[in-house]
Amino acid sequence: MKKYKAKKRKKFNPIPCSGKAQVWVETVIYTLIAFVMLGAVLAFVKPKIEEIQDKAIIEQTLGVIKDINTLILSVIQGGPGNKRIIEMEIKKGQLEIDGKNDRIVFKIESRYAYSEPGEDVPLGSVTAHTKKRGKFNIISLTSNYSGEYNITYKGGDNIKTITKSSTPYKLSISNNGRVGNYTLINIEVE
């Protein structure tokens, strides 16, 4: 009878690699873990950064609307024919010159809630209003001139919407005299 010798079996290694290759595999895995952690942090931090940026834009625009109010008072005091120009930059949102309702409105969609949703908050000559829409808020800053002045755009009761732009807009504000009981304030975008 023949005797069979048992063969020595090799250990099974599904990914045969040298020590150097193993270091590279571990490096790739650790890098992927770092990217996943970085992505998780950015998913939380990015909306907060956007809120802070939107708050700054709203505060800046509030200042511009108050400057427009000051210019309107200045052209009224200067008499008919008086004209002033203001430069303004819109980074986000839109500015609406509403000649039909004699008002100027800035609107922006943001995660930031500037005021209590659904309530009007007076801020001097400007009224802030926040409307909740899903996870975003529509914030409106309104300067209403009805009952005091007749606001027009290019000489008529038109509505002009100014949207974001990389270059500043120039608004021309002029006193076109009195019509009835109201001073006619004409606004144009140059």
Key structural traits:
190 residues, alpha+beta, six-stranded antiparallel sheet, four-stranded mixed sheet, 1 helix, 32% helix, 36% strand
What does this structure look like?
- By secondary structure, this protein is of the alpha+beta class.
- It has one domain.
- It is built from one helix and ten strands, in the order H-E-E-E-E-E-E-E-E-E-E.
- The chain has one helix at 19-78, and strands spanning 83-88, 94-98, 103-110, 120-123, 126-133, 136-144, 149-153, 159-163, 169-179, 182-189.
In short:
It is built from one helix and ten strands; from the N terminus they run H-E-E-E-E-E-E-E-E-E-E. By secondary structure, it is of the alpha+beta class.
> Any idea how many domains?
1
Low-confidence stretches: none
Biggest sheet strand order reads 4-5-6-3-2-8
Outline the biggest β-sheet. Answer: 6 strands, antiparallel
Strand composition percent: 35-45%
> Which class do the helix and strand fractions yield?
alpha+beta
- Topology as a string of helices (H) and strands (E): HEEEEEEEEEE
| Shape verdict | rod-shaped
Please give the count of helices.
1
Q: Helicity, in percent?
A: 25-40%
Mean pLDDT: 86
Distance between the termini: 110 Å
**Rg, Å, rounded:** 32 Å
Q: Can you count the beta strands?
A: 10
